[in-house]
Amino acid sequence: MIELPEGSWWDWDIVSWDPGQLRLGAGHDIAYAHGLELVFSDPLFVTCPAAFQDPAFRAPTPAEVGLVARQVGETPPVLVAFEADAGGPSPASGLVAARRLRIVRGIVFRYWREDLAAGERLAPWVRPPD
User: Fold this and answer.
1) Element (H or E) spanning 38, and its range?
2) Distance from the CA of 92 to the CA of which of 24, 58, 82, 122 falls in 20 to 30 A?
3) For residues 33 and 5, what is the distance between their CA atoms, to the nearest angstrom?
4) How far from the centroid of its chain's Cα atoms is residue 55's Cα?
């Protein structure tokens, strides 16, 4: 099970996802910026809502471990499970298996700005105005 640093990590979404990396962003309101990222390197198995709130991270169940092991041929080094509010009538489950997990803090702006301070950056989709 993972432990998040102190902070208000209520609002979550998928920041970026490609074959080499899944990046989840979190903050108290991610409309303009987020302050925490879970960076899964070499994701092997992912079932996760695109956006969700107030996740409760937990240890994966034996059934989830078995499911992932059957799908990818091994028990991965990182296996993160959670339940969260994804807007439906009941909580949505998330399960992410990867080779490595990094927890990264720092402000990531979701809109263009030039005056970034040390440790701040722009979300991958943000481009300068024409």
Assistant:
1) strand 33-47
2) 122
3) 17
4) 10
Q: Which long-range contacts (CB under 8 A, 24 or more apart) does 89-95 make?
A: 92/49, 92/52, 93/47, 94/47, 94/48, 94/49, 94/52, 94/55, 95/45, 95/46, 95/47, 95/48, 95/60, 95/64, 95/67, 95/68
Closest CA to 9 of 35, 47, 40: 35
Is a pLDDT exceeding 90 seen at residue 130?
Answer: no
Residues 10-45: pLDDT tens digits? 999 999 999 999 999 999 999 999 999 999 999 999
Assign residue 91 a region (left: φ > 0; alpha: ψ between -120 and 50; beta: otherwise).
Answer: beta
- Both tokens assigned to 81: 């499970």
Rg of the chain over all Cα atoms, to the nearest angstrom: 15
**SS3 assignment, position 19:** coil
What pLDDT sits at residue 117?
Answer: 94
